[in-house]
Amino acid sequence: TGFTYELPFGKGKAYGASMNRAMDMVLGNWQTNGILTLHTGAPYTLRSNACQGVWNACRPDVVSGKDPNAAPANGRNPDHWFDISGVTTPAPLTGGNIGLQSNNAPATRTLDFSLFKDFRITERFKAQFRAESFNIANTAQYSAPDNNLQDANFGKVTGTAPGSERHIQFSLRVQF
User: What is the rounded distance in angstroms from the CA atom of residue 62 to the CA atom of residue 41?
Assistant: First the structure.
């Protein structure tokens, strides 16, 4: 979802309508914008290296009565994203019985926020100051957990999405 809000300060606005030109240059004509992005985690498939024979794909077996995508008893965290006891080594001479895309990676949550200020120079020229922030809360955007049953990091998130950290930029734009 997105939003745009013009702050009600300055000449012709609800607050400070009678302020002088110098005060209006500092306090008037500000605008905020934001984009809130919420995504569920992308599905991924668990794998195994323990199949015997020739198989197109090797996946683990689901432990009876367990959900392979269930959260651990103490909740999800990067060191233990799902309950790894929900899967086991595939039965001999099988490719495993877990389905494709049985698990979901961590969700994505970001808020991009910007603040703009317009300065009227002449009737024809206008300048705009812009402060823009991407992922302003610096929320970690985790990558999918290790999906191979035989790996030491199985079920652990070992990285974040590249470029997902907070970015802030400033600019001055002249319009004519």
Answer: 21
**In angstroms, what CA-CA distances link 83 with 31, 61, 155, 170?**
46, 14, 8, 44
**Amino acid, single-letter form, for residue 64:** S
Q: How far apart are CA 41 and CA 143, in angstroms?
A: 9
At 170, phi and psi to the nearest 5?
-120, 145
Q: 62, 104, 107, 106: which is closest to 85 by C-alpha?
A: 62
* Alpha-helical segments (H) within 3-147: 21-27
CA-based nearest residue to 112, from 167, 165, 35, 39: 35
Amino acid at residue number 18:
S
- Token readout for 5 is 């809000």
User: Which segments in the chain show pLDDT lower than 70?
Assistant: 54
Task: Give pLDDT tens digits for 122-143.
Answer: 989 999 999 999 999 999 999 9
Indicate the Cα dihedral angle 162, 168, 171, 175, nearest 10°: 80
Strands (E), the chain: 2-6, 30-39, 43-44, 61-62, 87-88, 103-104, 108-120, 126-134, 167-175
